[in-house]
Design goal:
Number of strands: 10
InterPro entries: Cyt_P450, Cyt_P450_CS, Cyt_P450_E_grp-I, Cyt_P450_sf
Family: Belongs to the cytochrome P450 family.
Membrane topology: Single-pass membrane protein
Distance between the termini: 111 Å
Subcellular location: Membrane
Number of helices: 17
Strand order of the largest sheet: 1-2-8-5-3
Radius of gyration: 27 Å
CATH class of one domain: Alpha Beta
Protein name: 3beta,22alpha-dihydroxysteroid 3-dehydrogenase isoform X2
Bound molecules: protoporphyrin IX containing FE
Largest sheet: 5 strands, mixed
Order of helices and strands: HHHEEHEHHHEHHHHHHHHEEEEHHEE
Length: about 475
């Protein structure tokens, strides 16, 4: 065979090889694309520790721990994976995934249980109880957050705020967050156990502070660790609550009506002693341990969150002072004491509260665990994976809220889009104190704006390290002068 006659054969052979290679290459690429599409984008980081170091760097930076999530949301989109403290995590930030996970109609998700948190707030706490136990506990506690309790809280909180504000003009610099933490702590303790003694309040606030700090610490229970300090502080808080419960029972048994208490503890003990309740399934009585764990839980859930949200609100207001303040002042009530009904008339203040809650996203994401393999946003999520609904991203998504970084209370002239306003969560774990928290914020806003003008002493936007909720590191120091 000469060279010429070999040529077509070689060309044919070459074409066949090229076609075969193309096919093999295509299949490999398709397989690769398929497996990449199966699991959410992101990085598992280093073996075992995953991206824990990067997360800790964020916690330790002035931008706060949310920066870890924010930067990955930008890089990977609305669904990404990471690995933290040896566990796989997926973050989701669409309204549709928020609805599916938080409403949990499929029953496929449950709240994440963290052993070290349970050691601090108690494993009978609403925050840690199993799904079944949680249902029973919540049915007991939900009745405490009635309209009557909210009205009482408004009156008491108003009194506390008026009293606290009266001294601010003589103080030079007021570190807003510090004062607000004190006011909200007093409000919680009054509502829950009628504790008003200043010395006892101070010592309890210190101990609850240690418990909160330990919730973020490495769970190593050795004498010098932050975690140990928290465990010891929990012990002291439990002793205070035991003593209070004992005293209440003694008062009830000796029919001492001089000390009538209008607080949550009294209601819980009343159900306990007569075995009946106004509504819902109370066939199972709460144990003292359940009552104590949940009083501590409610102090933690209500104090820091509300104080942080209030501080952010004053900051946003300070940055938008003139127009917004005038509008609030115009709707001001001149009553010496505010009632719950007065607040419903303060429509613009309510929108301002909502807008502050949206922008601050004090609880930035809600952790759950997947109970069976499932698909979210087109990606496969395995059973046992931690799944986090990133509420902050939803609150700042330009497709959900136009100009999301602009403080614009009037955006709430219209209802927010479905499943897009999540400062208090959604579904079976929605914040029990949401109406109370909103009412407290309106009360403070009203009193603060109608009493004072203020200037910011330190506008540093850095975020405090090692706190459960996003707080300004400076505590937002201000100098106030009385409005004429
Ligand atoms: C601005 C203030 C507040 C904010 C932003 C806030 C936010 C939240 C959020 C987002 C959750 C749900 C977390 C999740 O689904 O994983 C929650 C739960 C809870 N909050 Fe609040 N909260 C605030 C004030 C309060 C107050 C004043 C109380 C009153 C004691 C309270 C009591 C609770 C309780 C008991 C839970 C647990 C509910 C459950 O697991 O069933 N919160 N809060």
């Amino acid at each position: 065979m000469d060279h010429i006659s070999l040529c077509p054969l070689i060309v044919l052979l070459l074409c066949a090889v090229i076609l075969a290679l193309r096919k093999i290459f295509k299949t490999v690429i398709q397989d690769h694309e398929k497996s990449a599409a199966d699991i959410p984008p992101g990085s598992h980081g280093f073996p075992v520790i995953g991206e824990t170091l990067q997360f800790m760097l964020s916690v330790n930076s002035g931008k706060g721990f949310y920066e870890f999530v924010r930067s990955r949301r930008i890089r990977y989109g609305s669904c990404f994976r990471t690995s933290l403290f040896g566990e796989a995590h997926v973050f989701l930030s669409t309204t549709e995934s928020a609805r599916a996970v938080l409403n949990n109609e499929s029953g496929m998700f449950t709240k994440r249980y963290i052993k070290s948190i349970a050691a601090l707030v108690g494993d009978r706490s609403l925050l840690c109880a199993s799904q079944h136990h949680h249902k029973i506990l919540r049915s007991h506690f939900i009745n405490l957050f009635s309209k009557k309790s909210t009205a009482l809280m408004v009156r008491n909180f108003d009194e506390l705020v008026v009293d606290a504000l009266s001294g601010w003009e003589h103080r030079g610099t007021v570190v807003l967050l510090t004062d607000l933490l004190q006011i909200t702590f007093k409000a919680m303790c009054k509502m829950l156990i009628s504790l008003e003694n200043e010395e006892e309040l101070d010592s309890l606030q210190r101990d609850v502070g240690f418990v909160c700090e330990a919730m973020l610490a490495f769970p190593l229970n050795l004498p010098w660790t932050r975690f140990h300090k928290g465990i010891m502080a929990r012990g002291r808080v439990m002793e205070v609550l035991e003593k209070t419960i004992r005293e209440r029972r003694n008062e009830t048994s000796s029919h001492n009506n001089n000390n009538h208490h209008e607080d949550f503890l009294q209601q819980l003990l009343a159900v306990d002693s007569d075995g009946s309740a106004s509504s819902s399934d109370h066939s199972t009585k709460l144990t003292d341990a359940e009552i104590k764990d949940n009083i501590l839980t409610m102090i933690i859930a209500g104090q820091d969150t509300t104080a942080s949200a209030l501080t952010w609100m004053v900051k946003y207001l300070g940055e938008n002072q003139k127009e917004e303040q005038t509008r609030i002042a115009k709707q001001a009530s001149d009553k010496p004491f505010l009632e719950l009904d007065d607040l419903t008339e303060m429509t613009y203040a309510s929108k301002m509260v909502k807008e502050s809650l949206r922008m601050a996203s004090v609880v930035p994401w809600f952790p759950r665990v997947v109970l069976q393999d499932c698909e979210m946003e087109g990606y496969k999520i395995n059973k046992g994976c931690n799944i986090n609904i990133d509420a902050r991203s939803i609150h700042l998504d330009p497709n959900v809220y136009s100009e999301p970084h602009k403080f614009n209370p009037s955006r709430f002239d219209e209802e927010a889009k479905a499943n897009s306003f999540l400062p208090f969560g959604m579904g079976g774990r929605t914040c029990l104190g949401l109406n109370m928290a909103k009412a407290m914020m309106v009360v403070f806003l009203h009193r603060f704006i109608t009493t004072y003008r203020w200037e910011v002493v330190d506008g540093d936007p850095s975020i405090e390290k090692w706190t459960l909720f996003a707080r300004l590191k400076s505590g937002y120091p201000i100098r106030v002068s009385r409005r004429l």
